[in-house]
Amino acid sequence: MGLSDDYHDYDVITTTNSKNSVTTDGLEWSWRQSLKPFAALPKWTRGLQVWVNGS
Predict the structure, then answer these.
(1) N or C end: fewer C-beta atoms under 10 angstroms in the chain?
(2) How far apart are CA 20 and CA 6, in angstroms?
């Protein structure tokens, strides 16, 4: 990709495929839930979140 040596420790991710021949049709969804409202859980879980994505 012609990047300088400063990029050796990074992942380079692109949003195009190499032959531009793939298309995607469908649904993408995401759900995030904080554990803070659940009083039955231990106090140490109150700063945690559950995050789920799908496509």
Answers:
(1) N
(2) 29
Residue-level pLDDT at 14:
67
pLDDT above 70 covers what percent of the chain?
71
| Rounded mean pLDDT, 6-12 | 71
User: What is residue 39's predicted lDDT score, i.e. its pLDDT?
Assistant: 81
Q: Which residue has the tokens 């495929």?
A: 17
Cα separations (Å) of 36 from 31, 50, 53? 16, 11, 20
Residue 52, SS3? strand
Distance separating alpha carbons of residues 42 and 52, to the nearest angstrom: 22
